[in-house]
Amino acid sequence: MMSFTLRNLLGRSISLSNKCSVRSFRCGQVMLNATSLKGRHLLTLKDFNGEEIKQLLWTSADLKLRIKEKGETLPLLQGKSIAMIFEKRSTRTRISTETGFALLGGHPCFLTTQDIHLGINESRKDTARVLSGMTDLILARVYKHSELQQLAEDGSIPVINGLSELYHPIQILADYLTLQEHFGSLTGLTVTWIGDGNNVLHSFLLSAPKLGMHLRVATPKGFEPDATVSQFAKSFSEKCGTKMFFTNDPLEAASGANVLVTDTWISMGQEEEKAERLKAFHGYQITMKTGQYAAPNWVFLHCLPRKPEEVDDEVFYSTKSLVFQEAENRKWTIMVRK
């Protein structure tokens, strides 16, 4: 998305308003009033309005239709390269980025802290400038969000957040595409989060209201989302006319939900907290009993990898579960962010 204009895909570029109301999107037709997102960083969806997020989702759906269903070849990134900096290991982020970039004719360069001098023998500032001269885009999966901000500040090419401790925007776009495909529209859906107040939840909080979605959040005491993020989210919800509810009771949160979502209780770097966290999250496993409190059409999402204590096999492998469609959609949504 960030290194070339979406006009190549959307056909036109017209300025958008910052209103919360959004159009439903469908692939196969050019979305009217599309805006150019050329050169934009994607560090957090807080920086994108509802129309811009819809545009990203429309383009993702269109690429999926044209490449997967119609078998078209679209060398939109021929001659382009992406630097993929991974401080944290990953299956979905790495494979989706490498395959997606290659499908569009680009060249992905996978880099770990063992491959480059990032912050060790060379400053992050210098690394950002070097990569800016050799590649067209940076995707970084890091421990600290401040490292992404520094790359964006010191480099001269767009930076995509592949994951930080605060946000995981590329995961949320895949979630939204999955829900759009399943329900036909995002507007009016109630999403219930049951689990840790982590980076994935933060990304939901800062984007769902802009798409007309309601949020119900259950976290154990002491594991609530970041207070500043929650404050922004409540402001977005009020502005966009959506509902947002916080509780420590998973079943209360599940009431009326169209979507039940959870994530790992123990993220990378939190292994020493395992015993404490497993005790704190007792009763937070999503089961069919949880689903009894949700709307009849409820579905389940998990960004993976999944542990049985987070959701049992009956739900995870049921027809209610969209997790593998959700995982595949990481590829189609990551493609448009280039």
Would you give an account of this structure?
- The chain is an alpha/beta fold and 338 residues long.
- The chain has 13 helices and nine strands.
- It has helices spanning 7-10, 50-69, 92-103, 124-134, 145-154, 169-183, 199-205, 227-240, 250-254, 274-280, 288-292, 313-316, 323-336; strands at residues 81-86, 107-112, 137-141, 159-163, 190-194, 214-218, 244-247, 259-262, 299-302.
- The strands form two sheets. Strands 7-6-5-8-9 form a five-stranded parallel beta sheet. A four-stranded parallel beta sheet has the order 2-1-3-4, sandwiched between helices.
- Helix 2 (50-69) crosses helix 13, helix 3 (92-103) packs across helix 13 (323-336) and helix 6 (169-183) crosses helix 13 (323-336).
- The chain is globular, with a radius of gyration of 19 Å.
Structural descriptors:
338 residues, alpha/beta, five-stranded parallel β-sheet, four-stranded parallel β-sheet, 13% strand, globular, disordered N terminus
